[in-house]
Amino acid sequence: MSKNGLRKKVEGDELDLSMLSLTEVPVKEIASVPKATKIDLSSNELVSLSNDFAPSLSHITRLELGSNKLRSLPSNIDKLVNLRHLDLYNNQLTDLPISLCQLRNLRWLDLKGNPLKPGLQKAAGDCLNQKECEIAARKVIAYLKRFHIQMENEKQERLKKEKEKEDARARAEEEELSRKRAEKRAAKEKRKAEHRAFVESHKHQSNGSAAAQQKYVAVPKPAPAAPKPKKARSNKGWSWLGWFNLIMFICLFGAIGAGLYVYTDGNLTPHGIAVAYPNLVKNAHVLANLTADALQPENLRETAYTVGRALKETGRSAWAAVERQTGDLSMYTDPVLAMLGRCWSVMQDVFFLAYDWLAKNIDWDAIYRALQSTWRFLHDQWLVVCDVLGKNEVFMNIVNILKIYLAKAWELIGILWVSLCHQISLAVEYIQAEGPGILASVKEQTTSTFYNAKQSIEGLMK
């Protein structure tokens, strides 16, 4: 069907495509008429809906699919985020996709004339009037949500049982390994005992009767060294330095996460991160070079002035926006800003003096060479340690056991990551839907608070 022919069937916000013997839905043509939010596809020959149906027609609010031959619905039907009315009367549906429970705006649902499963049929009801169809929508969504929760619980239980089996297998392997090690130690001790007995018997035979009369003087064992006193452990909790490091660690990971989200356009899957990685490395090198140039002694003062001017302009713009809401506050803020300006000038001079002294009196090249030499030494020692451990059979057995645990841990992390991404996508959808209203409310309350504070201060001044 051509676009022009399709537009002729549009009346207001309704598009009537019923009784046309359609076997496929013209998705692209319908999407080209965005004002049509109520689509009637009833009394056709539709057997299924394509996967691009829901994403392409997410704007529709009413969908009539009655009297077709539909056997299933697409799993991404939750993309019809604005759908309020869904008619599936007289089809061949036996079940519904779990994602249907994500249609938060669905208020009307008709499933009569379908060979549904008993539990779903009971939830759908008869739908003989408007009220019963509205109740059917609520009950079917609740039924699918319960079924979804049950499936998730079964999945978690299955993963738990698999983990227990893997743990049991790992314990059995570890016990078998311990048994073999014990047998090796016993065999080794037995060989040592046999060797000592052979040496003693040979010594007695060579020395003859003189060895029997030889006297031995008992040498007393040295007294054991006194144990070193243990340092008393403090129970005062974390120090301020520990809290500072924790906060810096959280900020670092937050900045890394925000940067990854920006560079991957929200696609935080391994493929999205791999695609964005070259661009991220390139920009990091550019930023490092710019930072190194800006911190040169001859450029530092100009950099500081540039940053200072940018901060001043940003502060002035923000303050101007506040004063547009509250009126002129300069009589209260000018003394404070003057004092802060003087403090900033003093701190700036002290910083430049300290930086000049450090740049002129410390041999940074020698420090860099010393650090580089230390790093090379540690790297060589690390290679030696790795080579020795690689030849140690016990250590390699422990590594193999750890690999099993790490593989399961990585699988669990993957499952948790997918769940987290799903929850984040739901949160983003909620923010996109509810954010403008919340921001408007916060802006109104902030404006009222500033105005009341101004009135109070002016009253106190009078």
UniProtKB/TrEMBL annotation:
Keywords: Leucine-rich repeat, Membrane, Repeat, Transmembrane, Transmembrane helix. Residues 155-203 have a biased composition (Basic and acidic residues). The chain crosses the membrane at residues 240-263. Pfam families: LRR_8. Residues 155-215 are annotated as: Disordered. SMART domains: LRR_TYP (SM00369). One of its GO terms (cellular component) is cytoplasm. The keyword Membrane applies. InterPro entries: Leu-rich_rpt, Leu-rich_rpt_typical-subtyp, LRR_dom_sf, LRR_domain-containing. PANTHER family: LEUCINE-RICH REPEAT-CONTAINING PROTEIN, PTHR48051. This is Leucine rich repeat containing 59.
